[in-house]
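=== RUN LOG ===
request id: a7f3
mode: sequence -> structure
chains: 1
length: 370
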Amino acid sequence: MTDYAATPGPLDEYPIHQAPLPLARVTTGDRNFYDRSYLNAHDRDGTFLIAGLGTYPNLGVVDAFLTVRRGQSQRAVRFSDAMGPRSLEQRAGGIRLEVLEPLHRLRLICEHDDLAADITWTGAFPAVQEQPHLMLAGARPVLDASRFAQVGSWAGTLTVEGTDIAVDPAVWTGTRDRSWGIRPVGETEPAGRAATESAGGFWWLYVPLRFPEFAVVVIVQELPDGRRTLNDAQRVFPDGRVEQLGWPRITVEYRSGTRSPVRALLELTTPDGKPLPIEVEVGTGIALHVGCGYGGDPDWQHGQWKGRGWSSSSRYDLTDPEIVARAPWGVSDFVARARCGEVEGWGLFEHASIGRHDPSGFADLGSVAP
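=== RESULT ===
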């Protein structure tokens, strides 16, 4: 491997250092350090796109993916390569992300015969800095990350298996986030003690929503007994003003016999103590461990070394019993249609419920909604 980490790179020309190191190096030797963009887009009527691009400096890997669901079919393309010096260019194979106007406009380009895109993002409201996210395995941080989120619209062209789809910003909306820090990436590490002494359950909710006059971002993570390890609810306005929305009360309705969410009620509280309830209807979904490289994806995982210039393309039949059986065992993203009073909004409903969760009435891994 070229020892580029010991030499200056393009970013070292700028006064942006935060440690006495060249920017090719990060301040931790943890193999799981990552720096990633996540983006989604949907037409509010069944077409759902998710993309991501990540760098893993301590693994020497850069990778990206794009996946689109239409009906019961999902197409995914992935690219992975050796990481070069850190620079302002964000590219992995046929996918690149261009920052046209920081924190406001981005351009996502994917060049592949099976799935292509040239779409531009425009933020509808300022980006929201989320609460730090920390997860421990014993005393070891397995996730220690910062992230900001934003809602907005998309414009351009999407091509799925030879069919062009016009992406009209009057219809196509979405959310995106940028995160960096430590989280499990690359090849699987030995589970050790955690394999036999796990927490017993994982419950996660992430809901960024766009309304005409404001955006809301809600994040909740709970232990099996319902204790919260992450609680963040914010509302942002066009002028950048941010309100905290208290301690959300969350009620999720699951489809009978499953843990697949159908709708939810988010009971928020404004700074002056007034209730702010938001009703969410859950629509088209994509399991992030089916084609997107998130934990548990058997085809490819973020940061995994696949060799130089690697790419792959897969088509998933979402009625396939193997895919249906796999979907509940990870985090899934769903198109969200929301209502706050008389106002309609759109966004993302990201959820996982695995194992025991007392507030939901789930006693163990096999528990499902009545």
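=== NOTES ===
The chain has one domain: 35-182+199-360.
Residues 154 and 364 are 41 Å apart (CA to CA).
=== END ===
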